[in-house]
Amino acid sequence: MQTYLRGRDMITTQEWTKDELDTVIDVALDLKRRRALGEDHALLRDKVLAMLFFFSSTRTRASFEAGMAQLGGHAMFLDSTSTQIGHGDTWKEIGEILGRYNDGIAIRQVDWGIGNEYIRAVADASRVPVLNMQCDWYHPHQALADLLTIIEQKGDPSKLTINMSYAYAASYQKPISVPQSLILLMTRYGANVRLTRPPEFKLMPEIVAQAEENAKKAHGSFEIVEDFDEGMRGADVVYAKAWGSMLTTSDHDESAKISEQYKDWIVDPRRMEMADEDAIYMHPLPADRNIEVTDAVIDGRWSRVFDQAENRLHAQKAVMALTM
Ligand code: CP
Fold first, then answer.
1. With 90 as the cut, is the pLDDT of residue 141 above it?
2. How many beta carbons lie within 10 A of that of residue 242, not counting itself?
3. 302 and which of 24, 116, 227, 281 could share a cystine (Cβ 3.0–4.6 Å)?
4. Whether residue 30 sits in one domain with residue 108
5. Do 71 and 146 fall into the same domain?
């Protein structure tokens, strides 16, 4: 177990060693148990986390804020509509100034081609750890909660086939950060990771190459499948959600038109029956109900979406308690 993580940024799990990630999961399980027992765990008393949101959020904001309160500290909410963080304040000013007021800075900035660069620039200018609450490339705290959920629900990831699949959505071109973070993290744990997506919904080549390398090192596997039903076959975990075709076009209308071809990429009971008989269904939420996934699946016996959402709290508390 690696115990010295104070001051570390969490921008992508790929920059943490497997031992360090194991520590996060171990601490998350301990904090979950302590909360269930009503045991005091005010490990961050008098500490403050600044939370910068350039994009809306329900779960991320609520779980970071609740987590800081439960750890005895405070979370300061700053959004781009009511502050100057979206205009005027430079990354250097944000890192320097908020780093002097606070003990950690958490940021959600998902704009394509901007988010990750912005978070890294703030981290460079900050004296306190920077936590990525989702950028254009990564959603590491979602992936940590997903790993915790998979371990709790299905056991050793190295024995599992995890189908990270595209699903159709009509709402908007969602970031590719969730599938990228999941394939990176689950390949570290030796799972058989299957990325199922249409040809126009590729992930970043450098991320896919890292996932392949991770799989090799962990004696797992990584495969890419372009047929929705094929991706379902025998999967222990069906993690299907929409994302945008950023690697194909930067035009939102064109991307929406491309996705129209894949309206039948919806997870329904027939599709879940193609997976392993004990398969579980996961989604980071919010889901486009009856477009990405039918009510019968997301509210049915396969679904673990509420446990998954709850684990955001425990995984993030572990990262905050270890780094801040
Ligand atoms: N899963 C997730 O990040 O949810 P929010 O966008 O509501 O924070």
1. yes
2. 25
3. 281
4. yes
5. no
